[in-house]
Design goal:
Strand order of the largest sheet of chain A: 5-2-1-9-10-13-14
Largest sheet of chain A: 7 strands, parallel
Distance between the termini of chain A: 21 Å
CATH class of chain A: Alpha Beta
Strand content of chain A: 15-25%
Structural class of chain A: alpha/beta
Oligomer: homodimer
Number of strands of chain A: 14
Order of helices and strands of chain A: EHEEEHHHHEEEHEHEHHEEEHHEHEH
Chain lengths: ~325, ~325
């Protein structure tokens, strides 16, 4: 390791690691990929699900497709110009089809499943698939071990995709567990990516079910707490609501303030800077009282160029651009 | 078992069992399905191949799709109005794509693979898939065990699909082996379907690589030789050439006469009646000299209605209609 990894030299491209879930994390990762040469994205896999015997990694695929430039711009997930003929055939064959699997997407799942069944780790398979799609950033699952988010609701215990997709995250969330997390080991490269980075970015992903599982992998939270990197987060809550998905409902259901301040409290000790939206400017002072610097800007990414704009502002706030 | 299964009562719908490969067998099976109520199709599985970890049974699927009325009429195999988006994605992911997998077809392979991996036998999985598609005939793989046709050519030893699809069956065939055949057991129902039938039909499929493996499953040849059913075959060779595929080349390469007479010799002792085309009328006498009755008719099925016409003529020749 050279000195440049201990202290970033202004002007050189910094080494950046992002912790990410799905769509929001993918967009910010794409913005960062346009700004820096050495980018690692550590992705939540606790949403992973097996359907029809296929190993499906929704967050990994969302990040991969986005970085490859083939994500569906309308949804943020799935593949652009996707078709659903296989899913229609599944339905005619009497199978449940609540999980939207596109035909192009299906190729990814079939290949991933085959390679995992050959005994290869998810991290190696992910690297191959991403490379085949021309992704230059390093894409790492948080772990090669199986972890599954279990959602406790008044309606009972649900698997994550059942809660999120099949029931459209309309159940109140009263508890979350990550099945398998205690035995999970960080995937090869994850801890080094945190230790060696100039900047670690916590993407505007759900703190509970996207960033939460990544931090819960044994060793990750300590690595983030102890890294010499500048740690910059982006609040997924703007003006009291989530940019996307059930983050606001989860904050509320689990007894937290539904605001960027609530997010800041969740990440206390793990962040040097939190980026909040201009609409939440009045939260800057109480967040700074937690010992977290605040970057007030337009935190909502509007389009592809805007991802790069936000990424660059984060790097500047981290002293790395 | 009632007496009606020992001797067919004219006027009642006969119990019919077909031994079949892919397209030709599927067409005739469809014709028979329109004529009789109790139809069993025993299908070659020695062509089965695993690609991308998917269990693919080309002949079973061709028969299933044809009987379900969803086969591609242009090719005889695959699904009508098929798309190939997943295959295109496979190619972009760096995978070989010489085997044409349609998106709708892919659903069949994914479900079959999943159910086989759960430890279920191919015969049970096939029955479920066929029932889901509305197939009323009983569709049986020749065996639940793995058998693989190996093709010896001057260019070396090839797997069947490699020979047939990837290399477009252009290599001379100098030998054939069915790997796993000695340990293979007939699938549940196969031997009973031969013993209990009023009529057994050998479809106009390739005698070597379609009907051959079925007959080579231990017990099947003896069951066919010993059945009280009338056994009626249709020559896949018309006017010295194959209706489809490499049957003519294989007869030649393996030292047989390339004619309906050559076919008759292969099936001697297993057939009561051989249906040959009007163009081959002069072969009727030498075939009868082998102890096989001859039905001379238009043996080539021209369209969907023509399949029923040929099926009905076969049943009449068998004394079952």
């Amino acid at each position: 390791m050279t000195g440049s990894q201990d202290q970033h030299v202004p002007g050189a491209s910094p080494t950046v690691t992002v912790l990410a879930g799905g769509v929001g994390g993918a967009k910010l990762a794409q913005g960062l990929a346009r700004c820096v040469e050495d980018l690692t994205v550590v992705v939540n896999t606790a949403d992973d699900v097996e359907l029809y015997g296929l190993a499906i990694s929704p967050d990994l695929d969302t990040v991969m497709y986005t970085l490859a430039g083939v994500a569906n711009p309308a949804t943020g997930w799935g593949v652009i110009d996707e078709t659903y003929e296989a899913l229609g055939a599944m339905q005619r064959l009497g199978e449940p089809t609540w999980f939207t699997l596109g035909d192009r997407d299906l190729a990814t799942h079939v290949l991933r499943t085959d390679r995992l069944r050959q005994g290869r780790p998810l991290s190696a398979v992910t690297a191959e698939l991403a490379a085949a799609l021309g992704v230059r950033a390093r894409l790492l699952p948080m772990t090669d071990d199986r972890v599954a988010t279990i959602v406790e609701t008044p309606a009972g215990t649900l698997g994550f995709q059942e809660y999120f997709v099949a029931r459209r995250h309309q159940d109140e969330v009263v508890g979350l567990t990550f099945d398998g997390i205690d035995a999970a080991r960080p995937a090869p490269g994850v801890l080094a990516a945190l230790a060696d980075a100039d900047v670690v970015v916590l993407a505007p992903s759900n703190p509970f079910v996207s960033i939460g599982p990544v931090l819960a992998v044994p060793g990750v939270r300590a690595a983030l707490a102890g890294t010499r990197a500048r740690r910059v987060g982006v609040s997924p809550i703007v003006a009291g609501d989530a940019l996307k998905g059930p983050a606001a409902d989860m904050l509320r259901g689990l007894g937290h303030e539904v605001s960027a301040l609530g997010v800041a409290r969740l990440y206390q000790g793990l962040l040097d800077v939190l980026c909040i939206d201009e609409q939440d400017r009045e939260l800057a002072a109480p967040i700074e009282d937690l010992g977290i610097e605040v970057l007030v800007t337009q935190a909502v990414m509007q389009g592809p160029e805007d991802r790069e704009r936000l990424a660059r502002e984060l790097l500047v706030a981290a002293g790395a651009a």
